[in-house]
Specification:
about 375 residues, about 25% helix, globular, five-stranded antiparallel sheet, homotetramer, alpha+beta, Chorismate synthase, AroC fold
Chain lengths: ~375, ~375, ~375, ~375
């Protein structure tokens, strides 16, 4: 199927497998004249690369990005930008065993049913390494958004039963612990919890939150292309995400209109503000000028060393213990992926919004003439 | 913006406002040779039309559908199908007042910011009536799916604090209470709760669940077009939905790999089954042959008669009491909308999956030749 | 298949058959705030409606358009615009005969092969009436373009062997003869030629040219979405068009670089102009600021009363004489269809071009803030 | 803009510039299980690579392709296929001069107007090398089509005033002369003509024809996605193409219904055939089972060494003589590009046609179950 592209106007198309020659992405629809170097992208890739702590896989990849096209004299040219990250530390032989059976919690069985066979080495296209292209493209989106006054901040809200304490919330600590948690005390407890998981050959789920600062009102669409719907798709398209909620999210189910509606007030300068942000910055599919805030639930790493029951390709029932280099929790490395996917979505919809009003269009082309 | 279309291969495009001449939808990509009459569609529209009970708006609309194109001699022709529902009971004068201010919980402010003005009559395009086109198209999708052995069942899981009791779960009772709850006792408690809400000029949120039976394995896509991502977008594109989860959903965050992975077993006939369904029928973006199960959180009706604070177009702070004919809860009438959006998504992805394997394609065209 | 939509950003989706209830179009992506009434659209539809002269079908259709959505208080709202034209003078019984055989030059056989059956009444979806939706949408595109200083002018270049004389070219006469020819003398000769065709129960082909005035430079795209490629698709998607050329077109094949290249010159004010316009206003897929000029070849009306050989559904070889109300030449009524399709293409690509430069985007959103 | 992708279901996205690090393409939507090696692709690239004769640029590029993803154990996996060709013989310093002025017949001025600047080295993205991605993807499409019994054959019809003689038409000679002409005598005259052009520092245009054998009837779509419209867009998106015609093409303008209609006849076995093929294999946008035949006009190479008038970036009028390694005619190397673009279009539309009939869909999924 044709599912490796994302976006309508700012479009990305990714490729690559865990143990193939590499992974990459084409960004099509990036405006001309944006300063761009490999360093801009590398800093984002470094946040998802393996080996950052003892809680991540030991696979030795520097994940160094190379810009192949679309940049000239340090600036984007407006044509398609091709980025590549070469794989360097494939240990494909580790995976011969899993070629023969269907790992629980993985898509092995689904792939074989759909395609007739699969690239089993490290999960092939369904590997977490698939997100390299997303993050590389997301770095460019973030750079564009920054010039428009929009910044994104994603972080870990919980790992297993360990949640951050909203009273201790400290955004500056996000980059200072291996779990990207905005609460150093919680990060310490998470470390203890993960040690226990690893000893038990088990793994943990968790939750990620993302805030988008500086979002102007009026972005999004009233029907199918609602801003929240596109954010939801973006986030739910990341492997291991099983839930998405915006603003008050699932708690609205037990709320009332009076408790859930956000009142408007005008200040003395005529600026209109919402008194609360239950909506999470989007109502009716369109941004309302408040911070956008959403959360995603991440399932536990399915590859665990503990004994599991499954079936092999000969349709025999067997017991397995999965070997290889697996993160005991997906959450920390998924944080930058969530941020990237949100950035891609916001950029795409900002661009698409430029034709919302006839007067803006007339003004735009008149400006160009003069 | 260009956001009134949904789907890649089975595409729908909707139009219409609450107080305009009517609403409708074009279905493009419907295969030829499907028996189709207005009755097939009307039965779905009747599930969402107003006036079904005292818990829904009194607006008197029969919501009668007319097929304008794409059907000949009782069968679809393979060309675009146009459906229309005329509005009949508009009371636009009720809405002159709201033209002047921004209703909390609504997108009035966002629309004005985006478009410069808005059709304020009954919410215009952002009205719940916008879903008429979705349901009319969904009825066709459901008819297609039925021929492929796939059926969908959506129902109310909770209204405010009133949840169904899983032990009392009775799918046959869904159509027998005004809330589309699969638990008659819970429906009775929900009625009491809503009476109280209405007396307090307040409204209630709730939760909807949807099960898709008969889904074959191998449908979906590994990257951006994951089946769960497209279902998520479909559901989050319905007004008032603030959260979406699949399978164990948000509870995976506190789970472990051992508790969350679904084991496979082969029976004596070599049929491979999952022992549990934590995944909700989709792993790695591709269906696994189990029932697909997902939930959505619906916010409380934002239009309430209780006093609220807001701002008018002159940027003055005011108090308002919203008049008009509003449902005290959106959930019951949204049930069929959720089912419809899921059906559109599944149909689109089933069709898209037909080119997954070269051998299937060769076989398909060889069959056509002979 | 899903082929009733056109455009990426300014999208139209059409529906309807010759003898169904009517025909129509949804325009999605029209900016808010454009003044729009049914009169704006009717004037374009009147240029293609039947019965304008004795050289067109006698079918009695006023082709009156109704706006169903997307316009409020006389202005577009930014949401999808639905337009409908009801059929009124169907004589479906005329067509029972053609249900049984495959008309030469028509797609009857192709439809049956593709879909298994067809709506044979007046050609169903493949009727020339299918273009009603294109013209109705094109009228809106033309209104948008006019506000941006862009106007389109299409006319008949030839009917059968009768071509206009470039020395007599008089654009003001286009609307003054039934063939939309910019040369009254040629129009007179065309009338004589068509009389002869009609007497011989035969029909004629012809050629249409279109000029786009006021097109700014820099619109289009370097690779697959070249402006000329999209214009070509737009025009070739009109039934009966068998060829498309831009600028010097097919004559470039025998030209040399020296004769075909357009030199640039700067005038005293620093304005850069091309000395010639062999390119037809587009080079490398991007407009160069000159007039865009292209031509299309229209095949003769395939429905003719003269005796033809064909096959019926029982696969018997038969002779036929097609009855019914057919134009002896398609060209005159296709002129406004060509103009409309060009307008849709130009509007779509102008809108898409707004994100070509980072500095423009920053400027756009800064303007919105202030 | 977002214009580097082509196709709806079988999608390709290209990248790369003449003097960048390389060029490539992602193919998304290729079915799983197709045998594929670099050799399959290289044979097509070799037909367009420079240095095949003295009539092509001396740039020394082997244009060796590397498969980066989407193939495992020699077969496509169904996920995105990434192909790369590294540039090796860039002489960028040759191009410093052209950075300063606008070459006649090129898009330099248009690029600067659109993007604000341009990668001037060898034309950047607008170089003929851009077609490498098209040909690499086209090779895969051709391999798919061959398995479905469809083959494509493109060749040179004319170079400047030298046309092939239809009486001498010999398809087997296409690969035996440097111009890919199916007439060795014409090829000899073309060589003489080009020698003369080269001596005069001038260049030549020409014409390409393409025949598609084995095309089943019933492929295509009745409205905007007509098979001929998509072929037209595909071909017109190739740089230097100024005209496209199908079947009798522009000559239909002077034809009559009687001369242009193709009669049907059934043979003794009940097979329905057309007696003639004026339509070129497509009527009403849908294939009719005959050979598809179309032609394209190619403009003369705009880069010529003869003196030309133009303007520099300082808006001064100047005279130039373009240096560098340029083909005196584009046609021969464009032949395989035309064939490739046609193959991409046909593959995309064949795949899209699989959902035309409900009975086929039911049959398809029933087959999968059993």
């Amino acid at each position: 199927m044709f599912g490796s592209s994302f976006g309508n106007v700012f479009k990305v198309t990714t490729w690559g497998e865990s143990h193939g020659k590499g992974l990459g992405v084409i960004i099509d629809g990036c405006p001309a004249g944006l300063s761009l170097s490999e360093d801009d992208i590398q800093v984002y890739l470094d946040r998802r690369k393996p080996g950052q702590s003892k809680y991540t896989t030991k696979r030795g990849e520097s994940d160094t990005v190379e810009i192949l096209s679309g940049v000239f004299d340090g600036k984007t040219t407006g044509t398609s930008i091709s980025l590549i990250v070469r794989n360097k530390d494939q240990h494909s032989s580790d995976y011969n065993e899993i070629a023969e059976y269907y790992r629980p919690g993985h898509a092995d069985f689904n792939y074989d049913t759909k395609y007739g066979f699969r690239d089993y080495r490290g999960g092939g296209r369904s590997s977490g390494r698939e997100t390299i292209g997303r993050v590389a493209a997301g770095a460019i989106a973030c750079k564009i958004l920054k010039q428009l006054g929009i910044t994104l901040s994603a972080y870990t809200l919980s790992i297993g039963p360990i949640s951050i304490d909203k009273n201790n919330f400290d955004e500056s600590s996000v980059m200072q612990n291996p779990f990207y948690m905005p609460d150093m005390a919680a990060a310490k407890r998470a470390a203890d919890y993960l040690e226990k998981c690893m000893q038990e050959k088990n793994s943990s789920g968790g939750m990620i939150e993302c805030i988008i600062h500086g979002m102007p009102a009026g972005i999004g669409d009233p029907v199918f292309e609602k801003l929240n719907a596109n954010l939801g798709k973006a986030i739910l398209s990341i492997g291991a995400i099983k839930g998405f909620e915006i603003g008050d999210g699932f708690s609205v189910a037990a709320a009332t209109g009076l408790s859930n509606n956000d009142s408007y007030r005008a200040d003395e300068n005529g600026n209109i503000k919402k008194m609360t942000n239950h909506s999470g910055g989007i109502t009716g599919g369109i941004s309302d000028g408040c911070e956008i805030i959403f959360r995603a639930a991440v399932k536990p790493t399915p590859s665990i060393a503990a004994t599991q029951q499954t079936v092999n390709r000969k349709k025999e029932n067997i017991s397995i213990n999965i070997k290889g280099r697996h993160d005991p929790v997906i959450v920390p490395r998924a944080v930058v992926v969530v941020e990237s996917m949100a950035a891609l979505t916001i950029t795409d919809m900002l661009f698409a919004s430029m034709t919302s009003r006839m007067e803006d269009i007339v003004h735009f082309f008149n400006d160009k003439k003069s």
